[in-house]
Amino acid sequence: MSRSATVFAAVTALAVVGTLVLVSRSDVKPAVPPPVALAEAKVPTASMPVRPPPPPARAIPEKVDVAEAQLTERPGGLRIADVVVGDGAEATTGAWVEVDYTGWLENGTMFDSSFKRPSAFKFQLGQGRVIAGWDQGVAGMKIGGKRRLVVPGAMAYGPHGRPPTIPANATLVFDVELKNIMPPRNAPAAPQKVDLTTLPSGLQIHEFAVGQGSAAEKGKTVMVDYTGWLEDGKKFDSSLDRPDPISFPLGQGRVIKGWDEGLEGMKVGGKRQLRIPYDLAYGEKGRPPTIPAKATLIFEVELVGVR
Fold this sequence. Notes:
Mean pLDDT: 85
Radius of gyration: 22 Å
Order of helices and strands: HEEEEEHEEEEEEEHEE
Number of helices: 3
Number of strands: 14
Largest sheet: 7 strands, antiparallel
Helix content: under 10%
């Protein structure tokens, strides 16, 4: 139901919603460019870690029986019915929400469900990251609440549909449960002015805090929160603008060279500033329009976990 929102997704092919393509908006470009990920996919080698099998899918609940008389129409033709009114925090525009859902066509054909994947689906409400019927229909729900949404074609995929699964002008029926609302995480506005240590590669590092947990080593999967700026102070991306840190195997070329080098040796809880010269980032061409040619990049990173 979402465009991939993390900078790392371009390389790892880790979609926010797994195989859910049916509610993805092709007319909306990703909000976040891919400044950290490399463009080339890597061919697995014997030295690369083997990914564990994905967790099993979850049981899909039965479709709730909702009578037409229970549905209330909203502007645009969206119809809703609260099957269960939650008693937790309320979902408001701009909040990151976590929902489980199942979707059907009017003829009863199920076309997707978050229960086919290991975990619920997260998205930022009211930002056009999902179909309009969801932005409007999930707003106002409270944690623990369950709601039926009957979304007219104009608030879903319109006259083009999403062949072969979603016909043109199709009305879509969803059962949605609001599982959680993630508190906002605030990215720093600008990098701190610090003294830097220059390594032989040209990478510069400042250690804000030395962690006390497990060390980041080549081949291990690391979880990192970060914010990145250009030298002029313009922020180009931050994991703190999203609900979760990013994860990737360290030292496998999945990220720019300055990250593979600059994160190695950190311990969980550690924080660093990395000043990365262009030859350890995006090189002479950069990554237009976000990353200029020969751009030095500044990151403040925190190692959140290692596995």
